[in-house]
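Chain A, query sequence.
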Amino acid sequence: MQRIKGYHAHVYFDASTIDQARALCERAAQLFELKMGRVHERPVGPHPDWSCQLAFSPEVFAQVVPWLA
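Chain A, predicted structure.
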C-alpha cells in the first residue's frame, strides 16, 4: 500500500464572497503549515466555481480539516 504524501482542499466562492474566501485562505496559511494556492476568479480545470487550493501534509490533516469545517 502506498503512503499518502499530501492532501489538498478547495475553497469555493463567487464575486460576492471573494473577500471572505481570501481572508479564510490567508488565515489558514498563517495558522497552519500549508501552502495557499492562487485565488482563481473563474472556474479552473474541473472546478465549476471560483476557487483557492490549500495543500497540506498528513501531519497537519487532523488540525486543518476540522478548522475548515
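The beta strands are 7-13, 34-40, 50-56. The domain at 7-68 is CATH 3.30.70.1240 (Alpha-Beta Plaits).
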